[in-house]
Amino acid sequence: MRSRFLGSFATVVIAAALVSCAAPAPKYSGYLGDGYKLLKEEKDPLGAPVLRFISPQFTPANYHSLIIERVQFYPEPKPDSQVSMGALNDIRDYLYKSMREKVGARVKVVDKPGPGVARIRSAITAVNAQTEALAAYQYIPIALIVTAAKRSAVGAPEDARIFAEAEVLDSVSGVRLAVAVREGTGERLKQAATGGPQVTLNELKPVIDKWVDALALNAITRIKAK
């Protein structure tokens, strides 16, 4: 098992070096600043793997409401033949809308900071097809393994992938309460007549739905329920 992991890791490191010979590829996008050092491998409420940290201070006794900031792209997206800007916007908007609806059904969602109010900020850091080479900034730990282990054979259907990072802060003090990094593999894509897969919201909806369902379940363990 260890030898297979090291082999996969080495493969991706070499790929990263080919992408940028000037400097090693970072493990994360940089969106969460120094929050990455807090991450640990855990399971979400639905049993899916996630890299995260949750402060012991983040409890219903301390927090009664949540501000959900609009989902961002980080860095700025670069649409290509696989993923259009329209598809990226659809994915981002669906994620944000789902968060507000599903989390808002369980805990109080507000728009202004204050005592007992937490604030979640999140970003989509990559969206692409399984066989598309990742840019240097897209190399996050889970992606390293998935990219090497699930690489599709030539001519086989590709999987749509989405990568996201998020953190929860105290809305008044700015103290970090939680951090998470996630990777998801969506439905397989059909080959387009032009010769390449096109990633759309439909391929990634099941992944996003599971993420938000887990977020909503986790919210009621950290914020006072309605």
Description:
A hairpin with a 5-residue loop joins strand 7 (159-170) and strand 8. Strands 1, 2, 3, 4, 5, 6, 7 and 8 form an eight-stranded mixed β-sheet that branches. The protein contains four helices and eight strands, in the order H-E-E-E-E-H-E-E-H-E-E-H. The chain has 226 residues and is an alpha/beta fold. The model is unreliable at 1-26, 131-155 and 191-195 (pLDDT under 50).
Portion in strands: 15-25%
What order do the helices and strands follow?
Answer: HEEEEHEEHEEH
Tally of separate domains: 1
Q: What oligomeric state do these chains adopt?
A: single chain
Largest sheet: 8 strands, mixed
As a whole number of angstroms, the C-alpha radius of gyration is: 18 Å
Mean pLDDT: 76
State the secondary-structure class.
alpha/beta
Q: Compute the separation of the termini in Å.
A: 46 Å
By DSSP (H or I, 4+ residues per run), the number of helices equals: 4
E-strand count: 8
Q: Low-confidence runs (pLDDT<50, min 5 residues)?
A: 1-26, 131-155, 191-195
Outline type: globular
Q: Roughly how much helix do the residues carry, as a percent range?
A: 25-40%
Tell me briefly what this model is.
The protein has 226 residues and is an alpha/beta fold. The protein contains 4 helices and 8 strands; from the N terminus they run αββββαββαββα.
Write the layout of secondary structure elements.
Layout: H1 2-19, E1 40-43, E2 49-54, E3 65-68, E4 72-73, H2 85-104, E5 108-109, E6 117-129, H3 141-149, E7 159-170, E8 176-188, H4 201-222
Parallel strand pairs: 3-5, 3-6, 4-6
Antiparallel strand pairs: 1-2, 2-8, 6-7, 7-8
